[in-house]
Amino acid sequence: MLHQMESDSSNEGPEASMDLLSLPESPPSKPSASDISEHEFTCHCCYDILVNPTTLTCGHNFCRHCLALWWESSRKNECPECREKWEGFPKINILLRDATDKLFSEVVQRRRAEIQANPNISRSLLAFQRYGDNLGRSRTNQHKGAGFFFSGVLTALSCVAVLVLVFYWSSGAVEPHDLLISKPVSHWEPEEVVSWLEHLGPWAQLYREPFQQENVNGRLLLMLGDEELSKPPYNIENQAHRRAVLAELDRVKILGVKPPQNLWEYKVTNAGKSLFLLYALKRTPRLTLFYLYMFDYSETFLPFLHTCCPAITHIGQSMESSFLSAQLEPSWRQWAEFLVKYLLLPYQLIAEFALDWLAVHYWTSRFIIVNAMLLSVLEGCALWRLWTRATIRSLPRKMWNHLCKMLSQGFAFALLWPFVPQFVCNCLFYWALYFSPIINIDLVVQQLMHPETQAP
């Protein structure tokens, strides 16, 4: 038997012997997940499993928050390992992220919870994302084409129009006249007294002729009282009319001049305050209204509140009665309505006030109403971003920082205001009044078309 096996093997040749030698060897086994080293999926900044791995142009991978911390500290677009500059804005490697999530799910979930609980890391990630958003917008703006050209032309024409109007107004092309808001009452001419009476409302037209016939000047006006107005030659028998005239006459006696009754008169008497209000209304309308309540209650805040939150009027109430009630303290219902609008819809208050003055400031009121609508949209978009990005808890801190910023700017404005030339003040005033809606239209379009690229 043994000889037969040897002869058979010899007959089959060397190939058979090679097969015999290879029989003990087992086929190669497939690599398992346990054979994969964690070192292959380790970030070279934190030396832990990659979380949201971000691949740079040099090929190195890092945790996104590690890359954000490195960028924030160095402000360099360089790889933390090889110092090669990256191009564009680094993106998350989706394939590598899915692999790490499957292979090291427990570690990745634990690290993500730690990252979300760390406010410093969240702030760095937000700053890094803002940098990428600004980089993307700057590149987009380079290729806007006709839209960008049209926006530039519109901006240039608006600037030229505002400057021409301001220069025309300040150069004395319009004949200067002594406004009643700056001229003492005792120096008023009879025509100016009649003009003051007409400003009280259409109902005051009934008594224009007696004042003209008696040639009432400023000194005589200050001597008039309830008894004189109820008797000839004035014959103001209507008690509501007489009370309205006396109420406004008391305000004139206290101020010594006619109180401002429209935007332009308010600008003349309160140049710095009007400019401050225009700029502050855009950034902090609630703080601006509180400022009016504290420092300009009777002359500005009360008429504003009565206009936006009118008292319940009876059917058939005359216009002069409404004029008289606007000088009274608001009721608790008016305060409640005002506070709700003040907290939730501050720009609606401004729009309602401008709408009431539509007959006096035709185009200006429309500019203010449109601007208030645009600012409401911008504020709504900002709140929506805070809600969707789960950063609503940071709202108190943001509000406090914004309040400190506005207070510091207001204080600096109050110090530097006396040194600002009148011409510069006029330029800034008309710029803020008429040019802000054009800027806000562009901001609203950006918010609605590219909401994901807007930083909160």
UniProtKB/TrEMBL annotation:
Residues 188-255 form the SAM domain. SMART domains: RING (SM00184), SAM (SM00454). The keyword Ribosomal protein does not apply. One of its GO terms (molecular function) is zinc ion binding. It is found in: Endoplasmic reticulum membrane. It is a multi-pass membrane protein. Residues 1-33 are annotated as: Disordered. Its main location: endoplasmic reticulum. The chain crosses the membrane at residues 147-169, 367-387, 407-433. Keywords: Apoptosis, Endoplasmic reticulum, Glycoprotein, Membrane, Metal-binding, Transferase, Transmembrane, Transmembrane helix, Ubl conjugation, Zinc, Zinc-finger. GO terms for cellular component: endoplasmic reticulum membrane; nucleus. Residues 43-83 form the RING-type domain. The keyword Zinc applies. It comes from the Eukaryota. Its EC number is 2.3.2.27. It catalyses: S-ubiquitinyl-[E2 ubiquitin-conjugating enzyme]-L-cysteine + [acceptor protein]-L-lysine = [E2 ubiquitin-conjugating enzyme]-L-cysteine + N(6)-ubiquitinyl-[acceptor protein]-L-lysine. CDD domains: RING-HC_BAR (cd16497), SAM_BAR (cd09513). PANTHER family: BIFUNCTIONAL APOPTOSIS REGULATOR (PTHR15898:SF13). Membrane-bound E3 ubiquitin ligase that plays a role in several processes including apoptosis regulation or reticulum endoplasmic stress. Has anti-apoptotic activity, both for apoptosis triggered via death-receptors and via mitochondrial factors. Contributes to the dynamic control of IRE1/ERN1 signaling during ER stress by inducing BAX inhibitor 1/TMBIM6 proteasomal degradation. Promotes the activation of TGF-beta signaling by mediating the 'Lys-63'-linked ubiquitination of TGFBR1 which is critical to activate the pathway. Interacts with CASP8, BCL2 and BCL2L1 through SAM domain and also with HIP1, IFT57, ESRRBL1 and BCAP31. Interacts with NGFR; this interaction inhibits NF-kappa-B and JNK-related signaling pathways. This is Bifunctional apoptosis regulator. It comes from Cyclopterus lumpus. The gene is LOC117751418.
